[in-house]
Amino acid sequence: AILNASGSIFDERPLGKIDNLRLRTYLYAYTDFYTENRSSDYDLLSLKIGPVFALASDWQLALTPFGEISFLNYKRLSHRGGAAVSIENLQDHWLNTVVFKLGRENFSSKFKGRNAAQADFSATFALYKLLSKDDYLFLSPGLAYNNANQDRFRYLQPAISAQYENLIIEKLLFRADISYFSRIYDGSEVDVAGQRRDFNITAGPSLT
Fold it and tell me: How far apart are the C-alpha atoms of 172 and 161, rounded to whole Å?
């Protein structure tokens, strides 16, 4: 069995006395706990912090350097750093966000073949009032490239996710999420480029 838990802290506040400028901070922690194989226990800690600029009454630009560190069996697995640029809509526009991210991940010596430069582009499109006046649907396609040192860890990753929320009655919110990604490897090794395809689908409804 695998037990997992996650938590996050998000804060955005004015930066000094400068008009239309705020500071955004996002802290995220995640852990996997394997009850039958403790050597596979995994932990992740991530921090993003940077300025947010107002572009117009309905749009803003966020520049967020980030850093994260991961652990396998409580020993450092990798650390990652980079920066993200995002354009965000503050109203009910069909284009909600556009994000471009560049980073690099370095692994411990045992896994150094996985060291990689990484690029990620994604957008979120919004549809409102589909079934009721209080619901919305977010569709988020994305494309990432992991340029690892070794061919067998180098891949292109298309992805898409959907999030639907509807306020059924007062203080009762229905939410459904589904996500999918596939990894297309470009390595030259046997059974990597031609036959290996990793993919993942997750789905989950909730009531809050």
Answer: 23
Q: Quick check: 72 pLDDT over 70? A: yes
As given in the structure block, the two tokens for residue 173 are 């919110």
Measured CA to CA, the distance from residue 135 to residue 166 in angstroms comes to 4
Q: Measure CA 87 to chain center.
A: 16
Task: Lowest mean pLDDT of 73-87, 118-132, 138-152, 190-204, name the range.
Answer: 190-204
Q: Which residue has the higher pLDDT, 166 or 67?
A: 67
Calculate the dihedral angle through the C-alpha atoms of 74, 80, 83, 86, rounding to the nearest 10 degrees: -60
Average pLDDT over residues 96-104: 97
Q: What is the pTM of this model?
A: 0.82
Residues 6+ apart with CB under 8 A from 115: 104, 105, 106, 107, 148, 149
CB 49, CB 84: distance < 8 Å: no
Hey, what are 85's tokens?
A: 């640029």
CB 173 within 8 A of CB 138: no
